[in-house]
Q: What sequence folds into this?
């Protein structure tokens, strides 16, 4: 599949291009970026890929798949253009700025028989795969509480659209880290029935929300408690899953991101594996973390599958919209 990658910031350079290049059945045929420095980086690392300056140039080529990893505000617009030109598309998170916008994209894709695939790669984090396996094997018994965190300590505010106070930029931590946390919760326990949220901007001078807590109520009595923060001077556990028979507790982040940022090629020997000292505990005893496998996302794409449904992205955006409403009123919002 001849693939055009649109955008070559951190997402394009670390999370998309290496996997497209490494996946049998895919070809990184072109990279779209108007930044001369990034064009030079592409030329050095992927010399066979064409360097394009705008999305419009993609329509002049012969491509099978387009991957959108531009700034958040452009995701839905660019995805719509790709679908209207009759091509399958992978869309980085957040999938769109609203659930209504996401539903419209899903409708276009369905009517044209095209694949519209949200890039929710955190479903292939090793620790998340471990939680999935524990639930599938009933190792915890009936689960009643799922706690999940993406916390950082970044007191200095960067000059970036991700820190913008303009709602159109979709720069809130709720859209950034929250998209992943909500998606993982939905993947495990299904669409929640109610949402309670606390949303704050806590760093001096910050314009975008940077500290958020969500409580999601699911069927069968499961509650998801999700934290995301840019000002957590002491990091809580990445996962704490409480069941009737046992608990699973895990600290630290999946190692794949840091290895990708360091320029390491994915899916080689030992890819995604954690050292024993980083494992979580099951019932208080060390429990091996499954190997992370971001490569499986694009392997499924190459096989003609849709590893993530656009309807899951719609649900995630419904949760985010309900969270904003809850934070404004102080009341839980039913979905």
A:
């Amino acid at each position: 599949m001849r693939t055009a990658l649109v955008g070559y910031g951190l997402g394009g350079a670390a999370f998309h291009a290496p996997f497209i290049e490494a996946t049998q059945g895919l070809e990184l045929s072109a990279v779209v970026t108007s930044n001369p420095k990034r064009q030079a980086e592409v030329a050095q690392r992927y010399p066979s890929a064409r360097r394009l300056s705008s999305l419009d140039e993609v329509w002049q080529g012969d491509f099978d798949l387009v991957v959108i990893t531009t700034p958040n505000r452009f995701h839905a617009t660019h995805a719509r253009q790709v679908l209207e030109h009759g091509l399958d598309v992978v869309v980085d998170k957040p999938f769109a700025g609203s659930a209504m916008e996401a539903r419209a994209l899903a409708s276009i894709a369905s009517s044209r028989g095209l694949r519209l695939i949200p890039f929710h790669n955190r479903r292939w984090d090793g620790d998340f795969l471990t939680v999935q396996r524990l639930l599938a094997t009933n190792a915890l018994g009936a689960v009643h509480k799922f706690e999940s965190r993406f916390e950082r300590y970044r007191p200095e505010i960067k000059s970036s659209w991700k820190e913008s106070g303009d709602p159109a930029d979709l720069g809130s931590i709720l859209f950034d880290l929250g998209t992943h946390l909500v998606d993982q919760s939905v993947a495990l326990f299904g669409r929640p029935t109610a949402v309670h949220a606390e949303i704050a901007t806590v760093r001096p001078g910050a314009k975008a929300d940077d500290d958020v807590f969500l409580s999601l109520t699911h069927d069968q009595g499961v509650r998801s408690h999700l934290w995301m923060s840019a000002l957590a001077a002491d990091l809580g556990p990445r996962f704490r899953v409480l069941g009737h028979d046992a608990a699973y507790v895990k600290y630290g982040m999946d190692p794949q991101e840091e290895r990708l940022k360091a320029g390491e090629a994915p899916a080689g020997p030992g890819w995604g594996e954690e050292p024993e000292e980083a494992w979580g505990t099951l019932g208080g005893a060390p429990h091996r973390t499954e190997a992370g496998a971001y490569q499986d996302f694009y392997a499924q794409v190459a096989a003609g599958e849709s590893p993530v449904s656009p309807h899951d992205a719609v649900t995630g955006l419904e949760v985010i919209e309900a969270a904003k409403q809850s934070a404004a009123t102080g009341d839980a919002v039913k979905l």
